[in-house]
C-alpha cells in the first residue's frame, strides 16, 4: 500500500510547507536554534559544561531529534554532522563512523562513557539501537587524553535512556522503510517508584535486500534485536546505577562483482551470521562537596563480543571455506576525582584500566586442484591474545580572567600485550611489545562577548595497534595478512581554531582544523626479507603518515517570517596519505559534503505541533588510491546530491504521540557515497509512529 500511494505523499507535505507562511499567527514555536549551543555536554571534559563554552569541536543529537528520526541504525543518524562520514564495509546493518577522513578504527565509540572495543580492521560497529539512546555527543578531533587509544580522530558517546517520573510509564515505537521492506520495533516499560528509577526495553529490526536505482542489491539484508535494562537510585549524596545491554545481529556482506573476479579470484562470498554484544555496566557517584573535593565517580563494566565471519574464496588454484569464530572479552574500570575550584583552577584527575582478550578460531577447508600451491585439507588455527592498559589523566580548567579560560590535559599510558596461545608455526606465544606514552592537550576559549566565543585547541592522538595487527592476523581475499608484534603505535597532532556565535536569530559553530599523523599501519605484500610463510601473504607494517585540513560549518538563521529556518551543515576537507614511495590526495574524502535545508514548526489549519524539513544532501566527487594495488584508481566516486522531505506531527494529550514521515531521494538519484560500497537507496518512504503513556 505504501508503494502504491507514495506519489501522493510528497504533494501533501509540500502543500503544508507552502502554506506555512500564511499561518504565522498560529505558529507555536520554532526549532529553537538559538538554544542549540546551550546544550549541557559531558564528553569533552568528563564533566558537565555548556557546549557554547567548550574548547573542543562538539556536536549533539538531542532527545527531540532522536524521537523524530526514522533511521534504522545509529550511523545513519550522524551522517549530517560536520566532519563525519558513514562507512558500511558492505554491511548496511553495521555502519561505522569516520571523523575528518580517518579510518573508523581511529574513532572511540562509547556507551555511557564506557568504550565498546573492537580489534578488527574496519572499526567498531555501532551495536546499539537508536531507540535505546537519549542523546549522542560527537567530539571531533583527538580525545585521546581523556578517552585513550582509538580516540585519535574523535569520540562518539551514546548516552542511553534512564528512568521516568511516574511509577509506570510505557513507550511503543514502530517504523517502516520501503527501500528494504524492513521494519523496526521498540517497546519499553519504565518509571520512578519512591526514588528508584528503572527501565526495561527491547528492540527488533528485520530488513531485506536494499532496493536502489541500480536495482536490488544482493546480499544486503540484515536483522538485529536488542535488550536493555536500567536501574538507578540515590542514597543521599550518593547514586548507584546499573545497565545491561544485549545486542544480536546477523547480516550478509555485499562484494562488488569486479572484486569477485579480480585475478586470481573467480568467486568470493562473505557473510557475518553473528555480531553480538553483551555488556554489564555499574556506575557510582558521590557528591562530596567539601572544601576541596566536589565529587568522586567510578564505573566498571564487563563486555563480551561474539563474532562469526564466513568467507568463501575460489581462485584459479583452489576453493576455500573459512569460518572465523572470535570472542572478545573486555573488562574496564575508571575512578575520577573532580576537585573544587582551587583559586581559579578546577582539576579533574582519573585512573583508567582496560583489559581486552581475543580468543579466535579459524576453520579453513581447502579443496585444491593445484596441490603444490595450496594442499587439500582442513586446518584449524587457534590464537589467543590480550592487551592490558593502565592510564592516568589530569585535566586543569583555569579561569584566567572573566573572558579567558584555558584547559590543559595530560595522559600517561602503560600498555602491555601478550600472545597467550597459537598453533601456527610462524608465531610463538609470548609478550608483545609494550608501550609507555605521555600525551597532552591544550585548549583556549575567549568570551569576546555574551554571544561570541573564540577558541583554539591543540591535542595529541594515540592508537595502540590492535590484536589483529599485533598477534592474530587476518584474511584479505585469497591471501593472509601476517601480524607484526613489533608495530609502533599510531600518533597524531591536531590543531583547531573555532568560532561560536549565538544570538536570538543566528546560531553559528565553525571550526578550521589541521591534523598530521605518523606511523600509519597498513598491510603490504610480503618481501623475501619479511620471511612470511605464504608466497602470496601480506604483512602489517608501519608504513605511512597523513596530513589533513578543512573547515566545518553549522549555521542556522531563525529570523525569517512565519518561523521558517534556513540551515546548513557543511564540510570542506582535504587529506593526504604518504608512504615511502607513494603519496596521494585521493583518500576517498570529498572536498565538499553536507546538507542544506529549510525547516518550519508550528500550527496549520488548527492542527498544532506540525514540523516540516526540506533539504538537499550531497558531496563532491572522490577517488581512492592505495599502494600495492593492481589498479591506478582503486575507487572512483562521482559527486551527487539528493532532494529529501521530512515532516511530522506531535499529537495527543501532552503531545505523547509522534508520527514522522521521511520522503528520501525524491529524484531517484543513483549514487554511492564516498566511503561506502553500496548504492544508496532508491526513492523511498520511511516512517515511524511513537506512543507514550
Could you characterize what this model shows?
This protein has 693 residues and is mainly beta. The chain has a single domain, classed as Beta Barrel (Maltoporin, Chain A). Helix content is 6%, strand content 59%. The chain has seven helices and 38 strands. The strands form six sheets. It has a 22-stranded antiparallel beta barrel. A hairpin with a 4-residue loop joins strand 10 (169-177) and strand 11 (182-193). The longest helix has 11 residues, at 9-19. The protein is globular. Residues 1-34 have low confidence and may be disordered.
The Rg value, from CA coordinates, equals: 25 Å
- Which structural class do the helices and strands define? mainly beta
Low-confidence stretches: 1-34
Question: What's the total helix number?
Answer: 7
Q: Estimate what percentage of residues fall within beta strands.
A: over 45%
What keyword list fits this structure?
globular; disordered N terminus; 7 helices; 59% strand; five-stranded mixed beta sheet; 693 residues; mainly beta; 6% helix; Maltoporin, Chain A
Amino acid at each position: 500500500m505504501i508503494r502504491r500511494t507514495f506519489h501522493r505523499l510528497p504533494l501533501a507535505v509540500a502543500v503544508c510547507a507552502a502554506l506555512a507562511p500564511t499561518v504565522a499567527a498560529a505558529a507555536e514555536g520554532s526549532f529553537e536554534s538559538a538554544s542549540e549551543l546551550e546544550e549541557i555536554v559531558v564528553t569533552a571534559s568528563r564533566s558537565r559544561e555548556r557546549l557554547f563554552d567548550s574548547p573542543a569541536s562538539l556536536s549533539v543529537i538531542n532527545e527531540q531529534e532522536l524521537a523524530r528520526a526514522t533511521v534504522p541504525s545509529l550511523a545513519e543518524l550522524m551522517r549530517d554532522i560536520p566532519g563525519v562520514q558513514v562507512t558500511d564495509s558492505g554491511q548496511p546493518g553495521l555502519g561505522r563512523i569516520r571523523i575528518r577522513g580517518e579510518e573508523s578504527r581511529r574513532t572511540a565509540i562509547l556507551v555511557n562513557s564506557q568504550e565498546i572495543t573492537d580489534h578488527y580492521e574496519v572499526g567498531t560497529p555501532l551495536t546499539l539501537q537508536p531507540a535505546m539512546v537519549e542523546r549522542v555527543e560527537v567530539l571531533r578531533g583527538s580525545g585521546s587524553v581523556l578517552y585513550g587509544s582509538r580516540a585519535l580522530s574523535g569520540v562518539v558517546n551514546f548516552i542511553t535512556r534512564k528512568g521516568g517520573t511516574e511509577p509506570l510509564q510505557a513507550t511503543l515505537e514502530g517504523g517502516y522503510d520501503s527501500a528494504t521492506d524492513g521494519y523496526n520495533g521498540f517497546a519499553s516499560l519504565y518509571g520512578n517508584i519512591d526514588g528508584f528509577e528503572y527501565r526495561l526495553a527491547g528492540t527488533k529490526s528485520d530488513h531485506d535486500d536494499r532496493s536502489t536505482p541500480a536495482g536490488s542489491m544482493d546480499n544486503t539484508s540484515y536483522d538485529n534485536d536488542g535488550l536493555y535494562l536500567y536501574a538507578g537510585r540515590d542514597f543521599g549524596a550518593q547514586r548507584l546505577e546499573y545497565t545491561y545491554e544485549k545486542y544480536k545481529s546477523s547480516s550478509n556482506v555485499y562484494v562488488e562483482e569486479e572484486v569477485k573476479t579480480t585475478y586470481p579470484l573467480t568467486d568470493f562470498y562473505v557473510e557475518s551470521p553473528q555480531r553480538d554484544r553483551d555488556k554489564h555496566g555499574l556506575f557510582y557517584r558521590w557528591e562530596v562537596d567539601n572544601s576541596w573535593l566536589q565529587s568522586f565517580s567510578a564505573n566498571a563494566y564487563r563486555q563480551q563480543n561474539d563474532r562469526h565471519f564466513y568467507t568463501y574464496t575460489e581462485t584459479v588454484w583452489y576453493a576455500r571455506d573459512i569460518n572465523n569464530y572470535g570472542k572478545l572479552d573486555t573488562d574496564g574500570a575508571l575512578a575520577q576525582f573532580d576537585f573544587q575550584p582551587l583559586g581559579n583552577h578546577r582539576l579533574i584527575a582519573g585512573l583508567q584500566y582496560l583489559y581486552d582478550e581475543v580468543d579466535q578460531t579459524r576453520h579453513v577447508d581447502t579443496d585444491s586442484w593445484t596441490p603444490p600451491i595450496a594442499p587439500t585439507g582442513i586446518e584449524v588455527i587457534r590464537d589467543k591474545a590480550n592487551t592490558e592498559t593502565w592510564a592516568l589523566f589530569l585535566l586543569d580548567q583555569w579561569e584566567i580572567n572573566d573572558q579567558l579560560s584555558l584547559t590543559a590535559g595530560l595522559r600517561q599510558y602503560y600498555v602491555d600485550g601478550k600472545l597467550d596461545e597459537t598453533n601456527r608455526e610462524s608465531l610463538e606465544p609470548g609478550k608483545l611489545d609494550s608501550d609507555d606514552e605521555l600525551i597532552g592537550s591544550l585548549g583556549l576559549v575567549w568570551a569576546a562577548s555574551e554571544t561570541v566565543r573564540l577558541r583554539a585547541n591543540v591535542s595529541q592522538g594515540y592508537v595502540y595497534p590492535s590484536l589483529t595487527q599485533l598477534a592474530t592476523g587476518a584474511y584479505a581475499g585469497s591471501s593472509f595478512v601476517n601480524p607484526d608484534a613489533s608495530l609502533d603505535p599510531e600518533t597524531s597532532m591536531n590543531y583547531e581554531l573555532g568560532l561560536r556565535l549565538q544570538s536570538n536569530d543566528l546560531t553559528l559553530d565553525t571550526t578550521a582544523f589541521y591534523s598530521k599523523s605518523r606511523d600509519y599501519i597498513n598491510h603490504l605484500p610480503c618481501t623475501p626479507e619479511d620471511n612470511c610463510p605464504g608466497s602470496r601473504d601480506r604483512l602489517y607494517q608501519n608504513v605511512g603518515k597523513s596530513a589533513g585540513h578543512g573547515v566545518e560549518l553549522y549555521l542556522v538563521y531563525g529570523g525569517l517570517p512565519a518561523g521558517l529556518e534556513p540551515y546548513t551543515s557543511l564540510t570542506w576537507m582535504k587529506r593526504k596519505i604518504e608512504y615511502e614511495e607513494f603519496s596521494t590526495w585521493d583518500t576517498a574524502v570529498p572536498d565538499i559534503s553536507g546538507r542544506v535545508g529549510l525547516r518550519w514548526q508550528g500550527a496549520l489549519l488548527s492542527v498544532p505541533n506540525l514540523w516540516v524539513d526540506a533539504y538537499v544532501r550531497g558531496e563532491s566527487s572522490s577517488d581512492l588510491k592505495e599502494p600495492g594495488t593492481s589498479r591506478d584508481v582503486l575507487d572512483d566516486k562521482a559527486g551527487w546530491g539528493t532532494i529529501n522531505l521530512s515532516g511530522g506531527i506531535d499529537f495527543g494529550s501532552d503531545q505523547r504521540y509522534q508520527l514522522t514521515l521521511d520522503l528520501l531521494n525524491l529524484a531517484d538519484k543513483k549514487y554511492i557515497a564516498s566511503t561506502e560500497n553500496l548504492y544508496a537507496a532508491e526513492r523511498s518512504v520511511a516512517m515511524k509512529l511513537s506512543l507514550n503513556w
